[in-house]
Amino acid sequence: MKDFPPLDSGRGPTVTDQIFGLLYDRVVNLTLPPGAKLSEIEVAAQMGVSRQPVRDAFYRLSQLGFIQIRPQRATTVTPISEEAVLQAYFIRTALEESCIRVATERLTDDHFDALAHLLDLQAREIEAGNRTGFHALDDQFHHDICAYAGLEFVWTLVKENKGHMDRARYLSLSYGADTAFAEHGQILDALRRRDAGAAVAAIRQHLSRIEGIIARLRVDQPQVFG
């Protein structure tokens, strides 16, 4: 099992939230791949906490379908579910298409400049081959559009539902980051022109790539699917 760092006991997220967040990220970025075993006792010991917050974090992850808890047997990371990925895609597309329409009306030149700066940072991460860094900036790009439009709650809903989609997308970044980056540029260009139709079309095309990603992963890495 992968080593886990001690937790920061200072002010901030609760212990359970910190454990959940760390495990969530490691499932999404495949540091904890499908089939990986997790021990409540070992995680608690490595992170310097009691077993209860670990148990609570495990339960939250199991509710998302990320891990399977079986009494008297090992807790394991679940395979990627194609059905769960496509459900997340449906929810995310509906939410972000609605948000992008509002964004075309509300975003300012300062907002556009800030988004352009994010694209510059994304380009650097691609050049450095840093999938984790690019993934974080990808999320920030989508988050900031929602936030600048005054609809940050939309991103909260997206984030609650997109985890399964992220697992598949992360695997694709080794060959698909350049495409994702180019599509971010198309989204920003449509926003700058305040062309709602073009912005919706761009975000729809961007998110729909998940279907092609699944098809390719089915061939290249079939072992990650259930």
From TrEMBL:
Residue ranges annotated for the HTH gntR-type domain, each copy included: 13-80
The keyword Phosphoprotein is annotated on this UniProt entry: no
Protein name: GntR family transcriptional regulator
Keywords associated with the record: DNA-binding, Transcription, Transcription regulation
InterPro entries: GntR_C, TF_FadR/GntR_C, Tscrpt_reg_HTH_GntR, WH-like_DNA-bd_sf, WH_DNA-bd_sf
Pfam families: FCD, GntR
Lineage of the organism: Bacteria, Pseudomonadati, Pseudomonadota, Alphaproteobacteria, Rhodobacterales
UniProt KW Transcription keyword: yes
PANTHER family membership: HTH-TYPE TRANSCRIPTIONAL REPRESSOR RSPR, TRANSCRIPTIONAL REGULATOR, GNTR FAMILY
Gene3D superfamilies reported for this sequence: GntR ligand-binding domain-like, Winged helix-like DNA-binding domain superfamily/Winged helix DNA-binding domain
